[in-house]
Amino acid sequence: MQSTPAADRKGMLRAAELAVRALGHTSPNPVVGCCLVYRPGQPDERLLAEGFHRRAGDLHAEAAALAALSPEDRLLLPLATAYVTLEPCAHHGKTPPCADALVSAGIGRVVYGTEDPDPRVSGNGLRLLEAADVVVEAASLELQDWCRWINRRFLVSVEQQRPYLVLKWAQTPDGGMDAARTVEHPGPFPVSSPEAQVVVHRWRSEEDALLVGARTWDLDRPQLNARLVGGRAPRRLVLGTPSTPLPSDVTCFAKPEDALAWCHENGIRSVLVEGGASVLAYFLQAGLWDELRVLTQDRPWTPSVWAPSLPDNAQPLTGSEQTNRGFPKRLGATECRVYLRSTDLTE
Questions:
Q1: pTM value surpassing 0.85
Q2: What is the pLDDT along the chain (347 residues), one digit of tens a residue?
Q3: DSSP state for residue 113 in the 8-state scheme
Q4: Angstrom distances, CA of residue 242 to CA of 107, 184, 232, 236, 250
Q5: Is 62 a catalytic site residue?
Q6: Are 148 and 346 in contact (CB under 8 A)?
Q7: What's the rounded Cα separation, in Å, for the pair 259 and 53?
Q8: Pick the catalytic residue: 45, 50, 62, 87?
């Protein structure tokens, strides 16, 4: 079945665009998008249907796209390509296997973004398709990297048996995170702009859990929710033993490793670590991080708490990389910088 690199790129990018619409809603499942395109790259190329996985328990992306087909267009599937951001599943969960559904529908070709490392899939979906004489091809390396990026939480969680870890903090240009807390000035002392605070709430809504240290909890009594954007509320985790009462829905841990093990056992794919400084420093020194988001803004107060040093393997995204990945560079008066581990496959 003929196609062109340009047509395949367009199809996979559209599938990825669909996938991220459900970011923050599918866990513990990955985000997945699917496009069904008739004769891609040919003069009569046509999008037949598309779909994405909206939330755990709902139709998977391939099934959603197939369900959106008209009866007439279903007859065209032998000459169509399914562009799907993740290998079609091959196991029975809450929904039937997507590889079986594609075969039964008569799809002629499948282009996938990345293999699914889940042991129940792990190449089985591709082998099932190939056994049914479906043409199976991997996307270009560029698009494989992009599909890994949009599913980094799921992939790291499965491959490394721990949640994907995003560390976020706000600091002044000289590295200050907080001023001295006194009776006259008990704080908190915000660093970032109101515009940045809204974006932080959007970030919260995209992760499965938020974590702060006991001292941060006692001093600031943070709500740890996504109220500024009306997003879903992540699980709230506290490290250490607070001296103030904890609501029943806040889970407390003695050590970071205990928190990460609990998250993995409970299907929590990602954690946003928001501080304080000693908690952030521990995660960094232990190498327990995947992504750093640092907000910087000048403030008139004198710092008494300092941000942790960036590790040597923290690779900053370029301005264009940051924009392409959906991260702003400025939020009002606040500068935003994002860092990945230098060994990250998405560099």
A1: yes
A2: 778 999 999 999 999 999 999 999 999 999 999 999 999 999 999 999 999 999 988 999 999 999 999 999 999 999 999 999 999 998 767 677 899 999 999 999 999 999 999 888 888 999 999 999 999 999 999 999 999 999 999 999 999 999 999 999 999 999 998 877 777 777 777 889 999 999 999 999 999 999 999 988 888 788 888 999 987 889 999 999 898 888 999 999 999 999 999 999 999 999 999 988 999 999 999 999 999 999 999 988 777 788 999 999 999 999 999 999 999 999 999 999 999 998 644 43
A3: S
A4: 57, 23, 25, 14, 11
A5: yes
A6: yes
A7: 28
A8: 62
Give the DSSP H/E element, type plus range, for residue 195: helix 194-206
Question: Exposed (0-12), middle (13-18) or buried (19+): which is 71, by Cβ within 10 Å?
Answer: exposed
- Inter-CA distances, 175 with 126, 234, 303, Å: 49, 28, 8
Determine which helix (DSSP H) or strand (DSSP E) holds 335, and give its type and residue range: strand 334-341
Which residue from 212, 263, 267, 203 is spatially nearest to 237, judged by alpha carbons? Answer: 212
192's tokens: 């970032």
DSSP β-ladder status, 334-341 and 291-296 = antiparallel
- C-alpha closest to that of 333 among 302, 292, 289, 299: 299
